[in-house]
């Protein structure tokens, strides 16, 4: 049985240290995930444990003493393929916008992320304006420093001015669209379609086979959801957020399964 998972820890009063495993564990054989639910206490010290599960059935988590906290989120996962097949998978409107963007006077350049890149400050301003929270831009700068060549910015230029950019983080065979920003001029030029297309084809050429486009939120961000699905992404439902507390585990194990889905 070969599994990998990453533990993040934070001190939260009055609970003390709380551990988090997000989007894990990852198993070479998916069938091993249910075994992990029974084995993880051998590697843990019994402190509060949060799990953003992916691929583990709700029944297995309940039987392992996990209590459901949040319903599952849905992410957009884009399988990567050779450019002709990738283009054929685009939705018609997305493909039309890409065609128009490719006819404009735009060029896409790529470079490794630097701490002073304008995309990071643009993301900070945008998050403050829109009132959303995610991983801070400083995380991206740290990731780039710790993983040279694995944080790539794809940037569309029009008349030598940046009009759109996307930050792609590379990790193993997968990649993640971490940050994106577009100006009003870029919207008029469909620049983000061009940026993402260049990023997708470049990631495939580098040997990656999947691009994680992030959470789908049709209620609060219908336009972005439509954009991601138009690229040909599949909607992948995660396993929700669960907590394991030794005092709560016996009660969790007898919860009706309908309350855990």
Sum up the structure in keywords.
261 residues, alpha+beta, five-stranded mixed beta sheet, 34% helix
Structural features, described:
This protein has ten helices and 14 strands. It starts with a strand and ends in a 9-residue tail after the last helix. With about 260 residues, it is α+β, with helices and mostly antiparallel strands. The relative contact order is 0.19. The strands form three sheets. Strands 8-9-10-11-12-7-13 form a seven-stranded mixed sheet, with helices on both faces. Strand 10 and strand 11 form a beta hairpin. Helix 4 crosses helix 8 and helix 5 runs antiparallel to helix 6. About 35% of the residues lie in helices and about 30% in strands.
What would you say about this model in short?
This protein is 34% helix and 30% strand. It is of the alpha+beta class.
- For the secondary structure, the number of strands is 14
Number of helices: 10
Order of helices and strands: EEEEHEHEEHHEHHEEEHHEHEEH
Radius of gyration (Å): 20 Å
Q: What global shape is seen? A: elongated
Distance between the termini: 27 Å
Model regions low in confidence, pLDDT < 50 over at least 5 residues: none
Largest sheet: 7 strands, mixed
What secondary-structure arrangement, pairings included, does this model have?
Layout: E1 3-4, E2 8-12, E3 16-22, E4 26-27, H1 32-39, E5 49-52, H2 58-63, E6 67-70, E7 74-79, H3 83-88, H4 92-103, E8 106-112, H5 118-130, H6 137-146, E9 151-158, E10 161-171, E11 174-182, H7 184-188, H8 191-205, E12 210-215, H9 222-230, E13 234-237, E14 241-244, H10 249-252
Parallel strand pairs: 3-5, 11-12
Antiparallel strand pairs: 1-4, 2-3, 5-14, 6-14, 7-12, 7-13, 8-9, 9-10, 10-11
Helix pairs in contact: 4-8, 5-6
């Amino acid at each position: 049985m070969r599994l990998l998972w990453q533990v993040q820890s934070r001190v939260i009063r009055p609970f003390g240290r709380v551990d988090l495993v997000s989007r894990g564990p990852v198993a070479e054989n998916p069938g091993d995930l249910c075994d992990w639910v029974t084995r993880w206490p051998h590697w843990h010290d019994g402190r509060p444990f949060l799990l953003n599960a992916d691929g583990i059935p709700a029944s297995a988590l309940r039987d392992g003493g996990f209590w459901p906290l949040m319903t599952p989120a849905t992410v957009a996962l884009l399988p990567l393929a050779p450019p002709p097949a990738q283009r054929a998978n685009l939705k018609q409107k997305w493909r039309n916008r890409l065609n128009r963007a490719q006819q404009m006077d735009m060029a896409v350049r790529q470079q490794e992320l630097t701490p002073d890149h304008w995309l990071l400050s643009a993301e900070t301003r945008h998050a403050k304006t829109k009132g959303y929270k995610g991983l801070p831009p400083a995380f991206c700068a740290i990731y780039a420093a710790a993983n040279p060549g694995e944080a790539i910015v794809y940037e569309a230029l029009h008349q030598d001015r940046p009009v759109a950019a996307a930050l792609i983080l590379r990790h193993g065979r997968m990649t993640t669209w971490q940050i994106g920003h577009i100006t009003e001029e870029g919207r008029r030029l469909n620049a983000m379609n061009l940026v993402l297309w260049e990023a997708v084809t470049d990631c495939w050429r580098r040997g990656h086979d999947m691009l994680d486009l992030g959470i789908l939120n049709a209620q609060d961000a219908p336009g972005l959801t439509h954009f991601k699905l138009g690229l040909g992404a599949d909607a992948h439902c995660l396993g929700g957020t669960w907590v394991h507390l030794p005092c709560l585990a016996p009660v969790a194990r007898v919860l009706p399964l309908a309350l855990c889905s």
